[in-house]
Write a structure and sequence with these properties.
This protein is 42% helix and 11% strand. With 585 residues, it is an alpha/beta fold. The protein has a six-stranded parallel β-sheet with strand order 3-2-1-4-5-6. The chain has a six-stranded parallel β-sheet with strand order 9-8-7-10-11-12, sandwiched between helices. Helix 17 (452-456) links the parallel strand 11 (443-447) and strand 12.
Protein backbone atom coordinates (compact mmCIF):
# COMPACT_ATOMS: atom_id res chain seq x y z
CA UNK A 1 0.00 0.00 0.00
CA UNK A 2 1.01 3.64 -0.31
CA UNK A 3 1.30 5.66 2.90
CA UNK A 4 1.26 9.46 3.01
CA UNK A 5 3.45 10.27 6.03
CA UNK A 6 2.70 13.77 7.37
CA UNK A 7 5.29 15.50 9.57
CA UNK A 8 5.95 18.94 11.03
CA UNK A 9 9.46 20.02 11.92
CA UNK A 10 10.81 16.48 11.83
CA UNK A 11 11.37 13.71 9.28
CA UNK A 12 13.07 13.83 6.78
CA UNK A 13 15.05 16.81 8.05
CA UNK A 14 18.34 16.19 9.88
CA UNK A 15 17.16 18.09 12.96
CA UNK A 16 13.67 18.00 14.38
CA UNK A 17 11.15 16.10 16.44
CA UNK A 18 10.00 12.54 15.79
CA UNK A 19 12.58 12.06 13.03
CA UNK A 20 14.16 8.95 14.50
CA UNK A 21 11.02 6.89 15.01
CA UNK A 22 9.66 7.90 11.60
CA UNK A 23 12.88 6.75 9.93
CA UNK A 24 12.76 3.44 11.80
CA UNK A 25 9.13 2.98 10.81
CA UNK A 26 9.75 3.65 7.11
CA UNK A 27 12.81 1.40 6.99
CA UNK A 28 11.06 -1.38 8.90
CA UNK A 29 8.06 -1.47 6.53
CA UNK A 30 9.90 -2.04 3.28
CA UNK A 31 6.91 -3.79 1.72
CA UNK A 32 4.99 -0.48 1.61
CA UNK A 33 5.64 2.70 -0.36
CA UNK A 34 5.88 5.99 1.51
CA UNK A 35 5.32 9.54 0.28
CA UNK A 36 6.60 12.17 2.71
CA UNK A 37 4.73 15.47 3.17
CA UNK A 38 6.85 17.59 5.50
CA UNK A 39 6.29 21.03 7.02
CA UNK A 40 9.50 22.78 8.09
CA UNK A 41 9.63 25.08 11.11
CA UNK A 42 12.74 27.19 10.49
CA UNK A 43 14.99 28.25 7.65
CA UNK A 44 17.93 26.70 9.49
CA UNK A 45 16.18 23.34 9.46
CA UNK A 46 15.79 23.50 5.69
CA UNK A 47 19.42 24.53 5.23
CA UNK A 48 20.60 21.48 7.18
CA UNK A 49 18.99 19.21 4.60
CA UNK A 50 17.53 15.72 4.82
CA UNK A 51 18.76 12.46 6.19
CA UNK A 52 19.48 9.65 3.74
CA UNK A 53 16.13 8.20 2.74
CA UNK A 54 15.46 4.50 2.09
CA UNK A 55 14.35 3.33 -1.37
CA UNK A 56 10.73 2.80 -0.29
CA UNK A 57 10.27 6.57 -0.09
CA UNK A 58 8.71 7.42 -3.43
CA UNK A 59 8.65 11.22 -3.22
CA UNK A 60 9.05 14.06 -0.76
CA UNK A 61 7.04 17.27 -0.82
CA UNK A 62 7.87 20.07 1.59
CA UNK A 63 6.40 23.42 2.59
CA UNK A 64 7.65 26.04 5.05
CA UNK A 65 5.67 27.06 8.11
CA UNK A 66 8.22 29.69 9.14
CA UNK A 67 7.46 32.04 6.26
CA UNK A 68 4.47 32.89 4.10
CA UNK A 69 5.01 33.14 0.37
CA UNK A 70 2.82 35.57 -1.52
CA UNK A 71 0.76 33.37 -3.81
CA UNK A 72 -0.35 36.38 -5.86
CA UNK A 73 -4.01 35.41 -5.50
CA UNK A 74 -6.40 38.39 -5.56
CA UNK A 75 -9.91 37.51 -4.46
CA UNK A 76 -12.93 39.00 -6.13
CA UNK A 77 -15.96 40.34 -4.34
CA UNK A 78 -17.70 36.97 -4.09
CA UNK A 79 -14.55 35.23 -2.83
CA UNK A 80 -13.96 37.96 -0.24
CA UNK A 81 -17.51 37.53 1.01
CA UNK A 82 -17.03 33.75 1.24
CA UNK A 83 -13.82 34.25 3.19
CA UNK A 84 -15.38 36.73 5.62
CA UNK A 85 -18.33 34.43 6.32
CA UNK A 86 -16.23 31.30 6.86
CA UNK A 87 -13.50 33.06 8.84
CA UNK A 88 -16.07 34.83 11.03
CA UNK A 89 -17.76 31.51 11.76
CA UNK A 90 -14.38 29.90 12.60
CA UNK A 91 -13.45 32.68 15.02
CA UNK A 92 -16.91 32.74 16.56
CA UNK A 93 -16.47 29.05 17.39
CA UNK A 94 -13.06 29.85 18.91
CA UNK A 95 -14.28 32.86 20.92
CA UNK A 96 -17.51 31.19 21.97
CA UNK A 97 -19.74 33.90 20.52
CA UNK A 98 -23.18 33.56 18.94
CA UNK A 99 -23.76 32.01 15.56
CA UNK A 100 -23.31 34.37 12.65
CA UNK A 101 -26.09 35.41 10.30
CA UNK A 102 -24.62 33.29 7.50
CA UNK A 103 -24.84 30.08 9.49
CA UNK A 104 -27.78 27.95 10.43
CA UNK A 105 -29.40 28.80 13.74
CA UNK A 106 -30.80 25.66 15.32
CA UNK A 107 -32.28 25.63 18.79
CA UNK A 108 -29.55 25.93 21.40
CA UNK A 109 -28.86 22.57 23.05
CA UNK A 110 -29.35 22.35 26.75
CA UNK A 111 -26.87 19.61 27.49
CA UNK A 112 -23.25 20.92 27.83
CA UNK A 113 -22.01 17.88 25.89
CA UNK A 114 -24.40 18.71 23.04
CA UNK A 115 -23.26 22.32 23.16
CA UNK A 116 -19.61 21.28 22.91
CA UNK A 117 -20.46 19.03 19.98
CA UNK A 118 -22.31 21.83 18.24
CA UNK A 119 -19.33 24.16 18.63
CA UNK A 120 -17.01 21.46 17.28
CA UNK A 121 -19.28 21.04 14.23
CA UNK A 122 -19.31 24.80 13.80
CA UNK A 123 -15.52 25.01 13.83
CA UNK A 124 -15.14 22.06 11.45
CA UNK A 125 -17.69 23.46 8.97
CA UNK A 126 -15.90 26.80 8.89
CA UNK A 127 -12.48 25.17 8.58
CA UNK A 128 -13.52 23.07 5.59
CA UNK A 129 -15.25 26.09 4.10
CA UNK A 130 -11.95 27.97 4.16
CA UNK A 131 -10.21 24.91 2.66
CA UNK A 132 -12.72 24.76 -0.20
CA UNK A 133 -12.25 28.48 -0.84
CA UNK A 134 -8.47 28.03 -0.93
CA UNK A 135 -8.87 25.16 -3.38
CA UNK A 136 -11.22 27.12 -5.63
CA UNK A 137 -9.29 30.40 -5.61
CA UNK A 138 -5.69 29.12 -5.36
CA UNK A 139 -4.81 30.09 -1.79
CA UNK A 140 -5.63 32.14 1.30
CA UNK A 141 -2.25 33.68 2.14
CA UNK A 142 -3.22 37.28 1.37
CA UNK A 143 -6.70 36.97 2.87
CA UNK A 144 -5.48 35.61 6.20
CA UNK A 145 -2.95 38.46 6.48
CA UNK A 146 -5.38 41.16 5.43
CA UNK A 147 -6.84 43.97 7.51
CA UNK A 148 -10.22 42.37 7.02
CA UNK A 149 -9.05 39.26 8.90
CA UNK A 150 -8.07 41.38 11.90
CA UNK A 151 -11.41 43.18 11.84
CA UNK A 152 -13.27 39.86 11.76
CA UNK A 153 -11.24 38.71 14.77
CA UNK A 154 -12.06 41.93 16.63
CA UNK A 155 -15.78 41.52 15.98
CA UNK A 156 -15.64 37.93 17.23
CA UNK A 157 -13.88 39.03 20.45
CA UNK A 158 -16.39 41.84 21.07
CA UNK A 159 -19.50 39.77 20.26
CA UNK A 160 -22.02 38.97 23.04
CA UNK A 161 -21.25 35.65 24.68
CA UNK A 162 -17.56 35.69 23.74
CA UNK A 163 -14.90 34.64 26.22
CA UNK A 164 -14.53 37.18 28.97
CA UNK A 165 -10.77 37.23 28.53
CA UNK A 166 -11.12 37.68 24.76
CA UNK A 167 -13.08 40.88 25.26
CA UNK A 168 -10.01 42.49 26.85
CA UNK A 169 -7.89 41.98 23.71
CA UNK A 170 -6.22 45.14 22.46
CA UNK A 171 -4.97 45.85 18.95
CA UNK A 172 -1.46 44.37 19.54
CA UNK A 173 -3.12 41.27 20.98
CA UNK A 174 -5.39 40.94 17.97
CA UNK A 175 -2.44 41.25 15.60
CA UNK A 176 -0.53 38.55 17.51
CA UNK A 177 -3.47 36.13 17.46
CA UNK A 178 -4.23 36.81 13.78
CA UNK A 179 -0.60 36.14 12.83
CA UNK A 180 -0.56 32.87 14.79
CA UNK A 181 -3.81 31.64 13.23
CA UNK A 182 -2.52 32.57 9.77
CA UNK A 183 0.60 30.51 10.37
CA UNK A 184 -1.40 27.54 11.64
CA UNK A 185 -3.73 27.63 8.60
CA UNK A 186 -1.00 27.85 5.96
CA UNK A 187 -1.45 24.17 5.02
CA UNK A 188 -4.91 25.10 3.67
CA UNK A 189 -3.25 26.84 0.71
CA UNK A 190 -1.01 23.92 -0.32
CA UNK A 191 -1.50 22.02 -3.59
CA UNK A 192 -1.26 18.63 -1.91
CA UNK A 193 -4.97 17.79 -2.12
CA UNK A 194 -5.16 16.41 -5.64
CA UNK A 195 -5.50 12.92 -7.04
CA UNK A 196 -1.82 12.77 -7.96
CA UNK A 197 -0.72 13.87 -4.45
CA UNK A 198 -2.41 12.82 -1.20
CA UNK A 199 -5.26 11.43 -3.29
CA UNK A 200 -2.96 8.63 -4.45
CA UNK A 201 -2.34 7.43 -0.88
CA UNK A 202 -4.23 4.56 0.69
CA UNK A 203 -3.70 6.03 4.15
CA UNK A 204 -2.48 9.29 5.68
CA UNK A 205 -0.34 8.85 8.80
CA UNK A 206 0.25 12.06 10.76
CA UNK A 207 3.33 11.84 13.00
CA UNK A 208 1.86 14.49 15.33
CA UNK A 209 -1.25 16.52 15.94
CA UNK A 210 -1.76 20.18 15.08
CA UNK A 211 -0.40 21.47 11.79
CA UNK A 212 1.03 18.06 10.84
CA UNK A 213 -2.45 16.51 10.89
CA UNK A 214 -4.17 19.39 9.05
CA UNK A 215 -3.23 18.08 5.55
CA UNK A 216 -4.64 14.73 6.62
CA UNK A 217 -7.93 16.37 7.57
CA UNK A 218 -8.20 17.96 4.14
CA UNK A 219 -7.21 14.75 2.35
CA UNK A 220 -10.01 13.00 4.19
CA UNK A 221 -12.46 15.81 3.43
CA UNK A 222 -11.66 16.19 -0.27
CA UNK A 223 -10.50 12.71 -1.24
CA UNK A 224 -11.82 10.30 1.40
CA UNK A 225 -8.35 9.10 2.47
CA UNK A 226 -8.44 7.64 6.02
CA UNK A 227 -6.33 9.39 8.64
CA UNK A 228 -4.16 7.83 11.37
CA UNK A 229 -2.71 10.15 14.03
CA UNK A 230 0.25 9.22 16.23
CA UNK A 231 1.12 11.43 19.20
CA UNK A 232 4.12 10.52 21.33
CA UNK A 233 3.83 14.00 22.78
CA UNK A 234 0.31 15.46 22.87
CA UNK A 235 0.30 18.60 20.72
CA UNK A 236 -2.25 20.46 22.85
CA UNK A 237 -0.37 19.69 26.07
CA UNK A 238 2.86 20.97 24.51
CA UNK A 239 1.05 24.19 23.55
CA UNK A 240 -0.22 24.66 27.10
CA UNK A 241 3.26 24.15 28.58
CA UNK A 242 4.88 26.51 26.07
CA UNK A 243 2.23 29.19 26.60
CA UNK A 244 2.85 29.14 30.35
CA UNK A 245 6.44 30.29 29.78
CA UNK A 246 5.62 33.09 27.33
CA UNK A 247 5.01 36.64 28.44
CA UNK A 248 1.85 37.13 26.43
CA UNK A 249 -1.33 38.94 27.38
CA UNK A 250 -4.08 36.79 28.95
CA UNK A 251 -6.31 37.42 25.93
CA UNK A 252 -3.66 36.04 23.56
CA UNK A 253 -3.14 32.91 25.65
CA UNK A 254 -6.89 32.30 25.97
CA UNK A 255 -7.63 32.75 22.26
CA UNK A 256 -4.73 30.59 21.09
CA UNK A 257 -5.60 27.87 23.61
CA UNK A 258 -9.20 27.88 22.37
CA UNK A 259 -8.10 27.72 18.72
CA UNK A 260 -5.71 24.80 19.27
CA UNK A 261 -8.31 23.06 21.39
CA UNK A 262 -10.89 23.24 18.58
CA UNK A 263 -8.36 22.06 16.01
CA UNK A 264 -7.29 19.15 18.22
CA UNK A 265 -10.91 18.12 18.74
CA UNK A 266 -11.50 18.00 14.99
CA UNK A 267 -8.29 16.02 14.40
CA UNK A 268 -9.33 13.41 16.97
CA UNK A 269 -12.86 13.27 15.58
CA UNK A 270 -11.81 12.86 11.95
CA UNK A 271 -9.06 10.30 12.58
CA UNK A 272 -9.94 6.66 12.08
CA UNK A 273 -7.51 5.74 14.84
CA UNK A 274 -5.29 7.66 17.29
CA UNK A 275 -2.16 5.98 18.66
CA UNK A 276 -0.69 7.53 21.81
CA UNK A 277 2.74 6.44 22.92
CA UNK A 278 1.83 5.79 26.54
CA UNK A 279 -1.01 5.88 29.04
CA UNK A 280 -0.07 9.38 30.19
CA UNK A 281 -0.55 10.72 26.64
CA UNK A 282 -3.72 8.66 26.30
CA UNK A 283 -5.29 10.32 29.34
CA UNK A 284 -4.46 13.74 27.89
CA UNK A 285 -6.06 12.79 24.59
CA UNK A 286 -9.23 11.64 26.32
CA UNK A 287 -9.44 14.92 28.23
CA UNK A 288 -8.93 16.80 24.95
CA UNK A 289 -11.93 15.11 23.34
CA UNK A 290 -10.61 11.89 21.79
CA UNK A 291 -13.02 8.97 21.62
CA UNK A 292 -11.77 6.19 23.86
CA UNK A 293 -12.80 3.59 21.27
CA UNK A 294 -10.35 5.11 18.77
CA UNK A 295 -7.31 5.10 21.07
CA UNK A 296 -4.71 2.37 20.83
CA UNK A 297 -1.42 2.65 22.69
CA UNK A 298 1.71 1.91 20.67
CA UNK A 299 4.91 2.37 22.65
CA UNK A 300 7.91 3.99 20.94
CA UNK A 301 10.52 1.54 19.77
CA UNK A 302 14.13 1.71 20.94
CA UNK A 303 17.06 0.10 19.17
CA UNK A 304 18.06 -2.64 21.62
CA UNK A 305 21.12 -3.89 19.71
CA UNK A 306 23.26 -0.86 20.58
CA UNK A 307 22.84 -1.62 24.30
CA UNK A 308 23.20 -5.42 24.04
CA UNK A 309 26.85 -5.64 25.12
CA UNK A 310 26.29 -3.60 28.25
CA UNK A 311 22.94 -5.17 29.07
CA UNK A 312 24.19 -8.73 28.70
CA UNK A 313 27.50 -8.06 30.42
CA UNK A 314 29.61 -9.09 27.44
CA UNK A 315 33.30 -9.39 28.22
CA UNK A 316 35.12 -6.27 27.09
CA UNK A 317 32.28 -3.88 27.90
CA UNK A 318 32.94 -1.42 30.70
CA UNK A 319 32.09 -2.68 34.17
CA UNK A 320 29.90 -0.51 36.36
CA UNK A 321 31.44 1.33 39.27
CA UNK A 322 29.35 0.28 42.30
CA UNK A 323 29.76 3.74 43.88
CA UNK A 324 28.76 5.83 40.84
CA UNK A 325 25.38 7.36 40.02
CA UNK A 326 24.65 8.32 36.41
CA UNK A 327 22.26 10.87 34.95
CA UNK A 328 21.85 10.98 31.14
CA UNK A 329 19.78 13.42 29.11
CA UNK A 330 19.42 16.96 27.79
CA UNK A 331 20.30 19.62 30.35
CA UNK A 332 17.27 21.87 30.79
CA UNK A 333 15.17 23.16 33.70
CA UNK A 334 12.52 20.45 33.26
CA UNK A 335 15.11 17.83 34.26
CA UNK A 336 15.50 19.47 37.70
CA UNK A 337 19.22 18.89 38.16
CA UNK A 338 19.10 21.36 41.06
CA UNK A 339 17.10 18.86 43.14
CA UNK A 340 19.43 16.08 42.00
CA UNK A 341 22.49 17.97 43.28
CA UNK A 342 20.84 18.66 46.64
CA UNK A 343 19.83 15.02 46.83
CA UNK A 344 23.39 13.95 46.08
CA UNK A 345 24.56 16.06 49.01
CA UNK A 346 22.39 13.88 51.27
CA UNK A 347 23.70 10.74 49.59
CA UNK A 348 27.31 11.79 50.25
CA UNK A 349 26.55 12.08 53.96
CA UNK A 350 25.45 8.43 54.03
CA UNK A 351 27.92 7.09 51.43
CA UNK A 352 31.00 9.37 51.23
CA UNK A 353 32.61 7.43 48.36
CA UNK A 354 29.70 7.98 45.97
CA UNK A 355 30.24 9.93 42.75
CA UNK A 356 27.74 11.51 40.34
CA UNK A 357 28.32 11.70 36.59
CA UNK A 358 25.97 14.04 34.67
CA UNK A 359 26.17 13.14 30.98
CA UNK A 360 24.48 15.35 28.43
CA UNK A 361 24.60 18.55 26.43
CA UNK A 362 22.35 21.59 26.93
CA UNK A 363 19.15 21.71 24.91
CA UNK A 364 18.73 24.07 21.95
CA UNK A 365 16.82 26.52 24.13
CA UNK A 366 19.00 29.61 24.81
CA UNK A 367 18.16 29.40 28.52
CA UNK A 368 19.52 25.83 28.71
CA UNK A 369 23.18 26.96 28.53
CA UNK A 370 22.61 29.38 31.40
CA UNK A 371 20.92 26.60 33.36
CA UNK A 372 23.93 24.32 32.83
CA UNK A 373 26.28 27.05 34.07
CA UNK A 374 24.08 27.50 37.15
CA UNK A 375 24.19 23.74 37.87
CA UNK A 376 27.99 23.70 37.61
CA UNK A 377 28.24 26.65 39.98
CA UNK A 378 25.93 24.94 42.47
CA UNK A 379 27.96 21.71 42.27
CA UNK A 380 31.18 23.63 42.97
CA UNK A 381 29.52 25.28 45.96
CA UNK A 382 28.02 22.11 47.43
CA UNK A 383 31.06 19.89 46.79
CA UNK A 384 34.40 21.69 47.06
CA UNK A 385 37.31 19.83 45.54
CA UNK A 386 38.28 17.03 47.88
CA UNK A 387 41.63 15.29 48.31
CA UNK A 388 42.52 12.09 50.11
CA UNK A 389 45.76 13.52 51.49
CA UNK A 390 47.73 16.70 51.94
CA UNK A 391 49.80 16.15 48.80
CA UNK A 392 46.94 14.84 46.56
CA UNK A 393 45.08 16.89 43.99
CA UNK A 394 41.51 17.69 44.89
CA UNK A 395 38.67 16.26 42.83
CA UNK A 396 34.99 17.15 42.68
CA UNK A 397 32.64 14.16 43.12
CA UNK A 398 30.26 15.65 40.52
CA UNK A 399 31.35 15.68 36.88
CA UNK A 400 29.63 17.20 33.83
CA UNK A 401 30.45 15.31 30.63
CA UNK A 402 29.26 14.89 27.06
CA UNK A 403 29.02 11.80 24.88
CA UNK A 404 31.79 11.50 22.32
CA UNK A 405 34.77 12.23 24.54
CA UNK A 406 37.53 9.79 25.52
CA UNK A 407 35.81 8.86 28.78
CA UNK A 408 32.35 8.27 27.27
CA UNK A 409 32.67 7.49 23.55
CA UNK A 410 29.08 6.22 23.10
CA UNK A 411 25.66 6.38 24.71
CA UNK A 412 25.89 2.79 25.94
CA UNK A 413 29.18 3.62 27.69
CA UNK A 414 27.42 6.41 29.58
CA UNK A 415 25.07 3.94 31.21
CA UNK A 416 27.83 1.37 31.66
CA UNK A 417 29.98 3.61 33.86
CA UNK A 418 27.57 3.57 36.81
CA UNK A 419 25.70 1.01 38.85
CA UNK A 420 22.60 3.16 39.34
CA UNK A 421 20.80 5.49 36.89
CA UNK A 422 18.83 8.45 38.24
CA UNK A 423 15.96 10.40 36.63
CA UNK A 424 15.02 13.62 38.47
CA UNK A 425 12.61 15.29 36.01
CA UNK A 426 9.60 17.39 37.00
CA UNK A 427 8.10 17.26 33.48
CA UNK A 428 8.46 14.22 31.25
CA UNK A 429 6.54 12.62 28.43
CA UNK A 430 7.93 9.24 27.43
CA UNK A 431 11.24 8.82 29.36
CA UNK A 432 13.62 7.66 26.63
CA UNK A 433 16.69 7.72 28.89
CA UNK A 434 14.89 5.47 31.36
CA UNK A 435 14.21 2.86 28.66
CA UNK A 436 17.85 3.04 27.54
CA UNK A 437 18.98 2.40 31.12
CA UNK A 438 16.60 -0.57 31.31
CA UNK A 439 18.01 -2.03 28.09
CA UNK A 440 21.46 -1.72 29.66
CA UNK A 441 20.28 -3.77 32.64
CA UNK A 442 20.69 -0.94 35.14
CA UNK A 443 18.65 -0.40 38.29
CA UNK A 444 16.95 3.00 38.30
CA UNK A 445 15.55 5.58 40.70
CA UNK A 446 13.03 7.92 39.02
CA UNK A 447 10.55 10.65 39.84
CA UNK A 448 6.85 9.97 39.36
CA UNK A 449 6.17 12.15 36.30
CA UNK A 450 4.76 11.50 32.84
CA UNK A 451 4.87 7.86 31.78
CA UNK A 452 7.62 6.84 34.24
CA UNK A 453 5.47 4.45 36.30
CA UNK A 454 4.04 2.86 33.15
CA UNK A 455 7.51 2.32 31.69
CA UNK A 456 9.34 1.13 34.78
CA UNK A 457 6.59 -1.14 36.11
CA UNK A 458 7.98 -2.83 39.20
CA UNK A 459 11.59 -2.95 38.02
CA UNK A 460 12.81 0.25 39.68
CA UNK A 461 12.19 2.69 42.51
CA UNK A 462 9.92 5.70 41.99
CA UNK A 463 9.78 8.76 44.27
CA UNK A 464 7.77 12.02 44.21
CA UNK A 465 9.23 14.88 42.12
CA UNK A 466 10.95 17.85 43.79
CA UNK A 467 11.73 15.74 46.86
CA UNK A 468 15.54 15.53 47.27
CA UNK A 469 15.32 13.62 50.53
CA UNK A 470 13.13 10.84 49.09
CA UNK A 471 15.41 10.60 46.05
CA UNK A 472 18.46 10.33 48.29
CA UNK A 473 16.93 7.63 50.49
CA UNK A 474 16.01 5.49 47.47
CA UNK A 475 19.51 5.82 45.99
CA UNK A 476 21.19 4.94 49.28
CA UNK A 477 18.96 1.87 49.68
CA UNK A 478 20.10 0.50 46.29
CA UNK A 479 23.73 1.50 46.73
CA UNK A 480 23.85 -0.60 49.91
CA UNK A 481 22.15 -3.65 48.33
CA UNK A 482 24.06 -4.83 45.22
CA UNK A 483 22.00 -8.04 44.92
CA UNK A 484 18.79 -6.05 44.74
CA UNK A 485 20.33 -3.77 42.12
CA UNK A 486 21.22 -6.77 39.99
CA UNK A 487 17.73 -8.27 40.26
CA UNK A 488 16.05 -5.02 39.36
CA UNK A 489 18.42 -4.45 36.44
CA UNK A 490 17.76 -7.91 34.99
CA UNK A 491 14.00 -7.49 35.34
CA UNK A 492 14.17 -4.03 33.76
CA UNK A 493 16.04 -5.30 30.73
CA UNK A 494 13.55 -8.15 30.24
CA UNK A 495 10.64 -5.68 30.43
CA UNK A 496 12.24 -3.28 27.96
CA UNK A 497 12.95 -6.06 25.46
CA UNK A 498 9.33 -7.16 25.64
CA UNK A 499 7.62 -3.76 25.34
CA UNK A 500 9.91 -1.05 23.96
CA UNK A 501 11.81 -2.37 20.96
CA UNK A 502 11.73 -1.20 17.36
CA UNK A 503 10.42 -4.58 16.26
CA UNK A 504 7.27 -4.41 18.39
CA UNK A 505 6.62 -0.85 17.22
CA UNK A 506 6.91 -1.77 13.54
CA UNK A 507 4.76 -4.88 13.98
CA UNK A 508 2.04 -2.86 15.69
CA UNK A 509 1.88 -0.21 12.95
CA UNK A 510 1.97 -2.84 10.21
CA UNK A 511 -1.13 -4.44 11.68
CA UNK A 512 -2.83 -1.07 12.14
CA UNK A 513 -2.16 -0.11 8.51
CA UNK A 514 -3.71 -3.31 7.22
CA UNK A 515 -6.68 -2.99 9.56
CA UNK A 516 -7.48 0.60 8.60
CA UNK A 517 -7.14 0.04 4.86
CA UNK A 518 -9.25 -3.11 4.99
CA UNK A 519 -12.03 -1.31 6.87
CA UNK A 520 -11.72 2.08 5.16
CA UNK A 521 -10.64 1.51 1.55
CA UNK A 522 -10.23 4.54 -0.70
CA UNK A 523 -12.75 4.32 -3.56
CA UNK A 524 -11.07 5.36 -6.80
CA UNK A 525 -12.52 5.00 -10.29
CA UNK A 526 -10.90 2.14 -12.18
CA UNK A 527 -9.85 3.08 -15.72
CA UNK A 528 -8.33 1.18 -18.60
CA UNK A 529 -5.10 1.97 -20.48
CA UNK A 530 -6.81 4.78 -22.42
CA UNK A 531 -8.18 6.43 -19.30
CA UNK A 532 -11.76 5.35 -19.86
CA UNK A 533 -13.86 3.92 -17.00
CA UNK A 534 -13.48 0.17 -16.79
CA UNK A 535 -16.82 -1.63 -16.43
CA UNK A 536 -17.00 -3.97 -13.45
CA UNK A 537 -13.57 -2.78 -12.30
CA UNK A 538 -14.86 -2.71 -8.72
CA UNK A 539 -16.63 -5.80 -7.44
CA UNK A 540 -20.37 -5.35 -6.99
CA UNK A 541 -20.26 -6.39 -3.34
CA UNK A 542 -18.12 -3.33 -2.59
CA UNK A 543 -21.24 -1.17 -3.08
CA UNK A 544 -23.65 -3.36 -1.13
CA UNK A 545 -24.19 -2.37 2.53
CA UNK A 546 -23.41 -5.13 4.92
CA UNK A 547 -21.05 -6.27 7.61
CA UNK A 548 -18.15 -6.54 5.16
CA UNK A 549 -18.30 -2.77 4.48
CA UNK A 550 -18.84 -1.64 8.05
CA UNK A 551 -15.98 -0.49 10.26
CA UNK A 552 -15.94 -0.10 13.98
CA UNK A 553 -13.53 2.83 13.48
CA UNK A 554 -15.53 4.72 10.82
CA UNK A 555 -17.03 7.93 12.17
CA UNK A 556 -18.12 9.68 8.95
CA UNK A 557 -21.83 9.57 8.17
CA UNK A 558 -22.77 6.95 5.60
CA UNK A 559 -25.12 7.73 2.69
CA UNK A 560 -28.80 7.50 3.40
CA UNK A 561 -29.18 4.45 1.24
CA UNK A 562 -26.59 2.67 3.41
CA UNK A 563 -28.23 3.49 6.73
CA UNK A 564 -30.13 0.93 8.68
CA UNK A 565 -29.69 -2.78 9.01
CA UNK A 566 -28.62 -4.75 5.93
CA UNK A 567 -31.33 -6.63 4.08
CA UNK A 568 -31.23 -10.30 4.88
CA UNK A 569 -31.66 -12.87 2.18
CA UNK A 570 -34.96 -14.75 2.26
CA UNK A 571 -34.46 -18.29 3.46
CA UNK A 572 -36.41 -20.70 1.19
CA UNK A 573 -38.80 -23.10 2.93
CA UNK A 574 -37.49 -26.63 3.38
CA UNK A 575 -38.29 -29.02 0.56
CA UNK A 576 -40.67 -31.78 1.74
CA UNK A 577 -39.16 -35.22 1.69
CA UNK A 578 -41.27 -37.69 -0.31
CA UNK A 579 -42.53 -40.55 1.76
CA UNK A 580 -43.04 -43.97 0.16
CA UNK A 581 -46.30 -45.72 0.67
CA UNK A 582 -46.03 -48.08 3.54
CA UNK A 583 -43.23 -46.19 5.37
CA UNK A 584 -43.80 -45.34 8.95
CA UNK A 585 -46.41 -48.07 9.29
Amino acid sequence: MRIGLLTEGGYPYVSGDAGLWCDRLVRGLGQHEFDIYALSRTERQEDQGWIQLPPQVGRVRTAPLWTAHDDGVVHGRRARRRFSEAYEELLAAVCGGPRTASSEAPEAPRDPADSAGAEADRFASALYGLAELARDEGGLAAALRSENAVRVLERACRAPGALRTARTARVPDLLTVAAHIERALRPLSLDWYEDDALGSADLCHAAAGGAAALPGLLARHFLGVPLLVTEYGVHLRAHYLAAATLEEAPAVRALLAAFHGRLTTEVYRAAVLVTPGNTHARRWQERCGADRAKLRTVHPGMEAARFADVGEGVRGSRCADPDTLVWVGRVEPAKDLISLLHSFAEIRKAEPRTRLRIVGAPAEDPDAAAYLAHCKALAAQLFPDEAEGVHAVGDNPVSFEEIGGPEIPSLAEAYACGALVVLSSVVEGFPVSLVEAMLCGRATVSTDVGAVVEVIGGTGLVVPPRNPRALAEACVALLRDPERRERLGAAARARALELFTVEQNITAFHGIYLEIVSHSPVRRPVVDEEGEPLPFGVPAEAHVPGRWTESRFMTARRPRWAEGAPVRATVPPPTPVPVSVGEGA
